[in-house]
Task: inverse folding
């Protein structure tokens, strides 16, 4: 059998279907790594610390996913992931102070959230997880790195925001799992699912979309 690509599939499974996701996987890591570097830049850290933030953010969610599904940790078996994190931090450093860079962080995070929701679901699916677990792994992959980034930066966690964040990752993962179950090609399913997640997150950023909150307990008279 063909060797797995970028750790997305087990060595004993064919990769023809999931191979198109390899590029999206690398892009997702690079995008999340950039958000980590930007978070460190906000507090004026040095390049080494920025690279650490980039790496933790870029590979954090995927690392936890791989440990949970019993797969080899992807960045350990393929050096390109860490290289992408280093490159992202260097680019952020070279760009220097820009008035738009923190707005860019939000939009990069929105794309990374959607793309990694798809990648997490796809990898869990390839390793034989049930559909519901694939969706959970997609959301975990998309959100965990951002949670660690926010904790390191001393910012409110992504999980505590009222606007749509985790829901966007869940929507992307769910759309991918459903489309592939219906026989849609992997690449098309990934493209549509990523768009779904990104649109939801973009709506939250642009118009403040959020899910209904738990109702406030009425005061006793």
Result:
């Amino acid at each position: 059998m063909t060797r797995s690509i970028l750790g997305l599939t087990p060595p004993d499974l064919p990769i023809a279907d999931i191979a198109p996701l390899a590029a999206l996987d690398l892009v997702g890591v690079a995008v999340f790594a950039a958000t980590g570097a930007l978070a460190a830049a906000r507090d004026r850290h040095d390049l080494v610390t920025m690279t650490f933030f980039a790496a933790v953010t870029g590979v954090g969610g995927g690392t936890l996913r791989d440990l949970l599904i019993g797969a080899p940790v992807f960045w350990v078996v393929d050096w390109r992931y860490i290289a992408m994190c280093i490159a992202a931090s260097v680019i952020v450093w070279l760009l220097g102070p820009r008035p738009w860079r923190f707005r860019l962080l939000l939009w990069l995070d929105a794309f990374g959230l959607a793309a990694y929701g798809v990648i997490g679901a796809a990898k869990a699916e390839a390793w034989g997880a049930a559909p519901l677990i694939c969706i959970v792994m997609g959301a975990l992959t998309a959100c965990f790195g951002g949670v660690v980034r926010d904790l390191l930066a001393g910012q409110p966690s992504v999980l505590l925001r009222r606007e749509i964040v985790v829901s966007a990752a869940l929507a992307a993962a769910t759309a991918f799992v459903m489309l592939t179950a219906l026989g849609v090609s992997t690449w098309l399913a990934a493209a549509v699912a990523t768009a779904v997640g990104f649109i939801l997150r973009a709506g939250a950023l642009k118009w403040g979309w959020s899910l209904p909150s738990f109702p406030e307990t009425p005061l006793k008279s």
